[in-house]
Amino acid sequence: xxxxxxxxxxxxxxxxxxxxxxxxxxxxxxxxxxxxxxxxxxxxxxxxxxxxxxxxxxxxxxxxxxxxxxxxxxxxxxxxxxxxxxxxxxxxxxxxxxxxxxxxxxxxxxxxxxxxxxxxxxxxxxxxxxxxxxxxxxxxxxxxxxxxxxxxxxxxxxxxxxxxxxxxxxxxxxxxxxxxxxxxxxxxxxxxxxxxxxxxxxxxxxxxxxxxxxxxxxxxxxxxxxxxxxxxxxxxxxxxxxxxxxxxxxxxxxxxxxxxxxxxxxxxxxxxxxxxxxxxxxxxxxxxxxxxxxxxxxxxxxxxxxxxxxxxxxxxxxxxxxxxxxxxxxxxxxxxxxxxxxxxxxxxxxxxxxxxxxxxxxxxxxxxxxxxxxxxxxxxxxxxxxxxxxxxxxxxxxxxxxxxxxxxxxxxxxxxxxxxxxxxxxxxxxxxxxxxxxxxxxxxxxxxxxxxxxxxxxxxxxxxxxxxxxxxxxxxxxx
Length: 479
Known about the structure:
By secondary structure, the protein is of the alpha/beta class. Among the domains are: 52-276, Glycosidases (TIM Barrel); 367-473, Sandwich (Immunoglobulin-like), CATH 2.60.40. Helix content is 30%, strand content 25%. It has 13 helices and 24 strands. The protein has helices at 2-12, 14-17, 27-34, 72-82, 93-96, 106-117, 144-147, 150-167, 184-201, 218-229, 252-263, 295-311, 349-360; strands spanning 40-45, 58-61, 86-90, 121-126, 173-176, 206-210, 238-241, 270-276, 316-318, 324-326, 329-331, 336-338, 344-347, 365-370, 373-375, 382-389, 392-399, 411-417, 425-429, 434-437, 443-446, 449-457, 462-466, 472-473. The strands form five sheets. The chain has an eight-stranded antiparallel sheet, covered by helices on one side. The radius of gyration is 23 Å and the shape is globular.
């Protein structure tokens, strides 16, 4: 299987070897565009760029640039067009300090200020090790090689001091390391000293510590107890977790336990979904591997993750903006498909799905939690997430009990949603941004509730909102 996957990528990128790369047609996106529920088409939801959005909790991953797994200059403009307000970078200690005591931030400056230029606020993951001091630069690098070495730890803190001072005018969110899982005993001293230093340099900063999603991990208790013992609980603001599950909705009971666990130490602690995404094909390694993902299921998966995070008021970062060329594979998590030379092939349907969610669900849309409902449909479990935009209700609906499929098929559902009224609702399919009219004969308010007859639902997110709150337009020229 591994050889077949590698062969596939080689064939897909062979034209690049001869300098003949062209933008390919996205067949998956074509299929999405011609599909839709059995409703009257009314128009297209118009995306917003990051510069045209005041604020939001959406982030996109711009990771691994420290190891040259992608090229920021290739996709910079696509970040701003996506409509997110935050972008996650990894600082790359080893790339910045290649001679002891000498720092070169030119490459990182282009990323930090490139995001700012796009109307996107960068946040920085401070990682990984540095071979100059006996530590490594890859995912899974052992924290002990830094935290248990006097020389390496001193060099690390000097680096942190320099980088925080350099970017404190544009960055105020600092994540300390990436996925130091099952290394909590060694991670604790690095976290404590680094967070303390950041708060000293930039008192108004927000610090993020890394934690496994499942609080039953005994290492997490070791980590929190170390912070408590050293009187450093106040130096951490958010706990970043990475909830990779095939069904994104299945992670939330564990997330709730995680929230309860960390807040038992400090009720001011908050969670940050710091990295999460879905492959667009079968992969043999990394998160969510050994499952036949496609660009159809990827788009649905991301919408369900975003909807689940938004209704719970969890800041959310999508992994990742573009495919990443790891040493042994071209990873397919990207919203943008690329080749082995980091060249863009096309935007996947997931790009447009994220664009529609980010553009509509900005800081003016507030969660009111999951809504109570009644339905005669029992073949699948339904999530109904409620929001307010101004004085108007907004609802996101999706089947949540199975892994997203490749089917472009809707099921009519009779549904009563409690404590929600509409005046003139429209239906929005959030992958394509297609807006549909809901026939007056198929909905009505019944006292404080709203009743829908045969509302088309599926295993992806659809939105019902007031017509006056939705920005209509013709199909964008870049679709």
